[in-house]
């Protein structure tokens, strides 16, 4: 499966520009032969939280429309990072996944909101897991700070996910946490990790890129460095069952000890 990681900068509080950029990047990824395109977190607005009323996507309609159209036209699945949306009178940090038929097959509201970046003051947290199937393989998606909760990735793995997508806006100053936690999640869950972080900066933070594709054995197959790029990485999904067969951690679990 050819996965295209879109490690981009995001224009603070300017959805129009960001929509244009994302369309260009998805087209570039598709023309390079991608099967799945993966975007970063909150690519429509960045963390311009005080202007959400003005700039959040109402019911995610604009994002869903663009991603569905491009998925169908270009014959690619899209794991749409996340966008800031407004549902009713509340705001959410939401991931959409679209398939090559142009269907929205998953919608996930970020479950863990990061107080350090004031997210909890503006957004509602989601309460549901995010599982979907692409090309017959069960996969899952979480968003940025969700990564710090190993139980959350494990819950997805126990429900069948073999590939985890993790879009982010992870600051440079904690980039070592990002890399180490991602590698740990891949090893302990014996899953592919496709993690796409933005680059550039906003008025509050500099963002560290270092998007990573990691195998179920824990090998870093690609590191995006800290510049904008659209990179295709070829992953062999057969490795998952091979690694799980060699070290059967799922059947060796002692659930009764963990309460
Ligand atoms: O956990 C962190 O250090 C960064 C998380 C983050 O930036 C986010 O959830 O948006």
UniProtKB/TrEMBL annotation:
Gene Ontology terms for molecular function: hydrolase activity
Gene3D superfamilies hit by this protein: Carbon-nitrogen hydrolase
Pfam family membership, one: CN_hydrolase
Listed transmembrane segments: none
Keywords, alphabetical: Hydrolase
SUPFAM superfamilies for the chain: Carbon-nitrogen hydrolase (SSF56317)
Domain of life, per lineage: Bacteria
Hydrolase found in the keyword field: yes
The keyword Hydrolase appears for this protein: yes
Domain CN hydrolase: 1-237
Family: Belongs to the carbon-nitrogen hydrolase superfamily. NIT1/NIT2 family.
Name under which the protein is recorded: Carbon-nitrogen family hydrolase
Species in which this protein is naturally found: Psychrobacillus soli
């Amino acid at each position: 499966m050819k996965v295209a990681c879109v490690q981009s900068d995001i224009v603070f509080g300017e959805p129009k520009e960001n929509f244009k950029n994302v369309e260009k990047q998805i087209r570039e990824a598709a023309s390079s032969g991608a099967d799945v395109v993966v975007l970063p977190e909150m690519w429509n607005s960045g963390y311009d939280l005080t202007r959400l009323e003005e700039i959040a996507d109402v019911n995610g309609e604009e994002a869903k429309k663009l991603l569905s159209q491009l998925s169908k036209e270009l014959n690619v699945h899209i794991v749409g990072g996340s966008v800031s949306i407004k549902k009713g009178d509340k705001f959410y940090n939401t991931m959409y996944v679209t398939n090559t038929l142009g269907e929205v097959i998953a919608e996930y509201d970020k479950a863990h909101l990061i107080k350090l970046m004031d997210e909890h003051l503006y957004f509602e947290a989601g309460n549901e897991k995010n599982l979907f199937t692409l090309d017959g393989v069960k996969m899952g998606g979480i968003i940025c700070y969700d990564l710090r909760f190993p139980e959350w990735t494990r819950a997805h793995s126990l429900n069948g996910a073999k590939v985890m997508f993790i879009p982010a806006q992870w600051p440079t100053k904690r980039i070592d946490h990002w890399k180490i936690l991602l590698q740990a999640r891949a090893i302990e869950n014996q899953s592919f990790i496709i993690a796409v972080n933005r680059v550039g900066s906003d008025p509050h933070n500099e963002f560290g890129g270092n998007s990573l594709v990691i195998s179920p054995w824990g090998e870093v197959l690609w590191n995006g460095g800290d510049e904008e790029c659209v990179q295709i990485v070829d992953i062999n999904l057969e490795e998952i069952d091979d690694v799980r067969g060699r070290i059967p951690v799922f059947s060796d679990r002692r659930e009764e000890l963990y309460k």
